[in-house]
Design goal:
Length: about 220
Protein backbone atom coordinates (compact mmCIF):
# COMPACT_ATOMS: atom_id res chain seq x y z
CA UNK A 1 0.00 0.00 0.00
CA UNK A 2 1.33 3.43 -0.92
CA UNK A 3 2.13 5.82 1.92
CA UNK A 4 2.52 8.85 -0.36
CA UNK A 5 -0.44 10.72 1.11
CA UNK A 6 0.06 9.66 4.72
CA UNK A 7 1.27 12.05 7.46
CA UNK A 8 5.05 12.36 7.52
CA UNK A 9 5.46 10.55 10.85
CA UNK A 10 3.58 7.55 9.48
CA UNK A 11 5.55 7.62 6.23
CA UNK A 12 8.81 7.75 8.14
CA UNK A 13 7.87 4.70 10.16
CA UNK A 14 6.73 2.71 7.13
CA UNK A 15 9.27 3.79 4.56
CA UNK A 16 12.35 3.43 6.80
CA UNK A 17 11.23 0.16 8.39
CA UNK A 18 13.73 -2.07 6.56
CA UNK A 19 16.66 0.17 7.47
CA UNK A 20 15.33 0.46 11.03
CA UNK A 21 15.20 -3.31 11.44
CA UNK A 22 18.75 -3.71 10.11
CA UNK A 23 20.01 -1.18 12.63
CA UNK A 24 18.20 -2.51 15.69
CA UNK A 25 18.89 -6.19 14.96
CA UNK A 26 22.62 -5.84 14.52
CA UNK A 27 24.46 -8.28 16.83
CA UNK A 28 26.18 -5.37 18.58
CA UNK A 29 22.77 -4.12 19.67
CA UNK A 30 21.95 -7.61 20.91
CA UNK A 31 25.10 -7.51 23.03
CA UNK A 32 23.85 -4.32 24.65
CA UNK A 33 20.26 -5.35 25.28
CA UNK A 34 21.28 -8.70 26.76
CA UNK A 35 23.70 -7.02 29.16
CA UNK A 36 26.81 -8.65 27.71
CA UNK A 37 28.67 -5.46 26.79
CA UNK A 38 31.64 -4.66 29.02
CA UNK A 39 32.10 -1.31 30.71
CA UNK A 40 34.93 -0.54 28.28
CA UNK A 41 32.71 -1.45 25.35
CA UNK A 42 29.95 0.78 26.67
CA UNK A 43 32.44 3.64 26.96
CA UNK A 44 33.59 3.09 23.38
CA UNK A 45 30.00 3.22 22.15
CA UNK A 46 29.31 6.40 24.11
CA UNK A 47 32.41 8.09 22.68
CA UNK A 48 31.29 7.35 19.12
CA UNK A 49 27.71 8.40 19.80
CA UNK A 50 29.05 11.64 21.24
CA UNK A 51 30.57 12.46 17.84
CA UNK A 52 27.20 11.88 16.20
CA UNK A 53 25.16 13.78 18.76
CA UNK A 54 27.59 16.69 19.01
CA UNK A 55 26.93 17.34 15.33
CA UNK A 56 23.16 17.10 15.74
CA UNK A 57 23.24 19.24 18.88
CA UNK A 58 25.12 21.95 16.98
CA UNK A 59 22.52 21.82 14.22
CA UNK A 60 19.70 22.11 16.76
CA UNK A 61 21.19 25.00 18.74
CA UNK A 62 22.16 26.97 15.62
CA UNK A 63 19.01 26.29 13.59
CA UNK A 64 17.57 29.50 12.22
CA UNK A 65 13.98 30.54 12.82
CA UNK A 66 11.79 29.08 10.12
CA UNK A 67 14.09 26.16 9.35
CA UNK A 68 12.56 22.71 9.25
CA UNK A 69 14.72 21.55 12.15
CA UNK A 70 13.59 24.45 14.34
CA UNK A 71 10.00 23.28 13.91
CA UNK A 72 10.66 19.84 15.40
CA UNK A 73 13.62 20.16 17.80
CA UNK A 74 14.87 22.53 20.47
CA UNK A 75 17.61 22.67 23.10
CA UNK A 76 15.74 20.22 25.34
CA UNK A 77 16.51 17.54 22.76
CA UNK A 78 20.31 17.91 22.96
CA UNK A 79 22.17 14.92 24.36
CA UNK A 80 25.93 15.63 24.43
CA UNK A 81 25.88 16.73 28.07
CA UNK A 82 24.16 13.47 29.03
CA UNK A 83 26.80 11.40 27.25
CA UNK A 84 29.51 13.34 29.08
CA UNK A 85 27.82 12.65 32.41
CA UNK A 86 27.62 8.92 31.64
CA UNK A 87 31.26 8.77 30.51
CA UNK A 88 32.26 10.34 33.82
CA UNK A 89 30.94 7.21 35.59
CA UNK A 90 33.20 4.91 33.54
CA UNK A 91 36.92 4.26 33.47
CA UNK A 92 38.71 6.11 30.65
CA UNK A 93 39.35 4.16 27.46
CA UNK A 94 41.66 4.80 24.54
CA UNK A 95 39.42 5.79 21.67
CA UNK A 96 39.66 7.12 18.14
CA UNK A 97 36.82 8.57 16.08
CA UNK A 98 35.53 5.87 13.76
CA UNK A 99 34.88 6.61 10.10
CA UNK A 100 31.27 5.52 10.45
CA UNK A 101 30.71 7.92 13.37
CA UNK A 102 32.18 10.81 11.38
CA UNK A 103 29.98 9.90 8.43
CA UNK A 104 26.87 9.75 10.61
CA UNK A 105 27.73 13.14 12.07
CA UNK A 106 28.04 14.64 8.59
CA UNK A 107 24.41 13.83 7.84
CA UNK A 108 23.34 16.80 9.98
CA UNK A 109 25.05 19.30 7.66
CA UNK A 110 21.83 20.27 5.87
CA UNK A 111 18.46 21.25 7.29
CA UNK A 112 16.66 18.27 5.76
CA UNK A 113 19.49 15.92 6.69
CA UNK A 114 19.33 17.10 10.30
CA UNK A 115 15.56 16.50 10.44
CA UNK A 116 15.97 12.93 9.18
CA UNK A 117 18.82 12.37 11.60
CA UNK A 118 16.79 13.81 14.46
CA UNK A 119 13.89 11.47 13.71
CA UNK A 120 16.17 8.45 14.03
CA UNK A 121 18.17 9.52 17.07
CA UNK A 122 15.30 11.01 19.03
CA UNK A 123 13.16 8.00 18.20
CA UNK A 124 15.83 5.75 19.67
CA UNK A 125 14.96 7.04 23.14
CA UNK A 126 11.90 4.78 22.96
CA UNK A 127 14.12 1.71 22.90
CA UNK A 128 16.89 3.28 24.96
CA UNK A 129 14.95 2.85 28.18
CA UNK A 130 15.12 -0.95 27.77
CA UNK A 131 18.80 -0.95 26.90
CA UNK A 132 19.42 1.24 29.96
CA UNK A 133 17.74 -1.31 32.21
CA UNK A 134 19.85 -4.14 30.79
CA UNK A 135 23.06 -2.16 31.23
CA UNK A 136 22.13 -1.14 34.76
CA UNK A 137 21.77 -4.80 35.70
CA UNK A 138 25.13 -5.66 34.16
CA UNK A 139 26.98 -2.44 35.07
CA UNK A 140 25.29 -1.07 38.21
CA UNK A 141 27.58 1.95 38.59
CA UNK A 142 27.44 3.04 34.95
CA UNK A 143 25.40 6.09 34.07
CA UNK A 144 22.57 5.66 31.57
CA UNK A 145 21.10 9.16 31.34
CA UNK A 146 21.79 9.31 27.60
CA UNK A 147 19.88 6.12 26.93
CA UNK A 148 17.00 7.09 29.19
CA UNK A 149 16.83 10.89 29.19
CA UNK A 150 13.09 11.29 29.73
CA UNK A 151 12.00 8.45 31.99
CA UNK A 152 8.26 7.92 31.98
CA UNK A 153 7.76 11.00 29.78
CA UNK A 154 9.41 9.36 26.76
CA UNK A 155 6.19 8.41 24.97
CA UNK A 156 4.60 11.82 25.52
CA UNK A 157 7.69 13.58 24.22
CA UNK A 158 7.84 11.29 21.19
CA UNK A 159 4.22 12.02 20.33
CA UNK A 160 5.06 15.73 20.43
CA UNK A 161 7.87 15.11 17.92
CA UNK A 162 5.53 13.12 15.68
CA UNK A 163 2.98 15.92 15.75
CA UNK A 164 5.67 18.45 14.83
CA UNK A 165 6.93 16.29 11.96
CA UNK A 166 3.42 16.21 10.56
CA UNK A 167 3.46 19.99 10.19
CA UNK A 168 6.42 20.00 7.79
CA UNK A 169 5.73 20.83 4.13
CA UNK A 170 4.83 17.89 1.90
CA UNK A 171 7.46 18.90 -0.64
CA UNK A 172 10.19 17.99 1.84
CA UNK A 173 8.81 14.62 2.91
CA UNK A 174 10.63 12.39 0.41
CA UNK A 175 13.97 14.01 1.17
CA UNK A 176 13.45 13.72 4.93
CA UNK A 177 12.60 10.03 4.58
CA UNK A 178 15.73 9.50 2.49
CA UNK A 179 17.80 11.31 5.14
CA UNK A 180 16.33 9.16 7.90
CA UNK A 181 17.10 6.00 5.93
CA UNK A 182 20.70 7.14 5.48
CA UNK A 183 20.91 7.73 9.23
CA UNK A 184 19.64 4.25 10.07
CA UNK A 185 22.20 2.82 7.63
CA UNK A 186 24.93 4.92 9.23
CA UNK A 187 24.03 3.55 12.67
CA UNK A 188 24.17 0.00 11.29
CA UNK A 189 27.63 0.71 9.89
CA UNK A 190 28.71 2.17 13.23
CA UNK A 191 27.55 -0.97 15.04
CA UNK A 192 29.53 -3.04 12.56
CA UNK A 193 32.68 -0.99 13.05
CA UNK A 194 32.31 -1.01 16.83
CA UNK A 195 32.03 -4.80 16.70
CA UNK A 196 35.61 -4.99 15.43
CA UNK A 197 37.01 -3.30 18.56
CA UNK A 198 38.34 -5.65 21.27
CA UNK A 199 36.62 -3.58 23.98
CA UNK A 200 33.26 -4.17 22.31
CA UNK A 201 33.35 -7.95 22.28
CA UNK A 202 30.65 -9.40 24.49
CA UNK A 203 31.58 -10.41 28.01
CA UNK A 204 31.20 -14.09 27.10
CA UNK A 205 33.79 -13.71 24.35
CA UNK A 206 31.28 -14.17 21.54
CA UNK A 207 30.83 -11.06 19.44
CA UNK A 208 28.05 -12.54 17.33
CA UNK A 209 25.22 -12.89 19.80
CA UNK A 210 21.65 -13.82 19.00
CA UNK A 211 19.82 -11.54 16.62
CA UNK A 212 16.90 -10.03 18.51
CA UNK A 213 14.49 -7.19 18.07
CA UNK A 214 15.34 -4.68 20.78
CA UNK A 215 12.06 -2.79 20.51
CA UNK A 216 9.49 -5.60 20.71
CA UNK A 217 7.30 -6.77 22.29
CA UNK A 218 7.47 -4.06 24.91
CA UNK A 219 8.60 -1.00 23.01
CA UNK A 220 7.07 0.25 19.75
CA UNK A 221 10.05 2.47 18.93
CA UNK A 222 9.48 5.10 16.25
CA UNK A 223 5.77 4.29 16.46
Amino acid sequence: MSTANAPLADRLKADTSAAHVRAERHPFQATMITGRLSAAGYAQWLHQMRIVHAALDRAITTATAGSLLSKVADKSHTKTHLIDADLATLAPVSTTPLASANHAASLSSTDIGAVGMFYVLEGSTNGGIYIARALQRALPTAGTSFLNPYGEAVRTRWQTVRDALNTLPAGAHDQIIAAATRTFDAITNLSEELSTLPDCHSSDGNNHGPVINITKPHNPAHA
